[in-house]
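Hi support team,

I submitted a single chain yesterday and got back a structure, but I'm not sure I'm reading the token output correctly. Could someone confirm the output below corresponds to the sequence I sent? I've pasted both exactly as they appear in my results page.

Thanks,
R.
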Amino acid sequence: MTVNDVSGTAYQSSHRSARAPRLFLDTGLARARVLELDKAQANYLGNVLRLKAGQSVLVFNGRDGEWRADIASSGRRGLALAIREKTREQTGLGGVHYLFAPLKQARLDYVVQKAVEMGVASLTPTVTQHTQVTRINHDRLVANVIEAAEQCGILSVPEVRAEVRLAEALANLPPTCRLIFCDEEAPEPDPIAALTGLGIADEVAVLIGPEGGFDENERRLLSAHPGVLRLALGPRILRADTAAVAALALVQSVMGDWRELAPRAG
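Hi R., thanks for writing in. Yes, this is the structure output for that exact sequence:
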């Protein structure tokens, strides 16, 4: 799959579905199945959303598409979901991968959620010399990814990979994956021109460094990586979480799945 393999029809359907309550269930989905909800899920539907028996929600598991399910009572104040019909076929994620130096918790929560909304296929915490946070709560990252997927209407849940040091993160990239890292000293000041010149790529990895930037050894390592692109993000210094959203928006609009939504001339 190339990074721009997505249809406008699928996007519009996703946008409409995002307005209905959605719930991720880590179990198989099929017509007529009745699924017991755990306490957290029952609390979310019954007490947070205040839904009643007979009302419908949309459910997905990242494998079997999206389904409409009706809420049903189950035992003493329990809730279950009765699967009724498939509303959307399963779709995949594109080829944009997000590598990031971990941030403090509140800002990390924000940037993880936004990365999912921007359509990344995977997230990799990447420890650098100037990384300020070195202990990552992996379960919290996964929970934020799932919550964002529920809210933004996507069907595939991005993979949350284990934290690695920068050298290992680069070594783990597939040979055909192009590396983009944000650098205020990039030789091409126009990010759109730089990305356009990169050409078509099946997969791209967007690397956002720490607020202290990369040290000289890391810069040499990055510059030596095959097919690397140094990407400028304008005349102002951006916080790491802002830079992540800006970079992912540029990549998706120039060479990712946003391009498929643009009107074509003629």
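A quick pointer for reading it: The chain is about 30% helix and 25% strand. Let us know if anything else looks off.

Best,
Support desk
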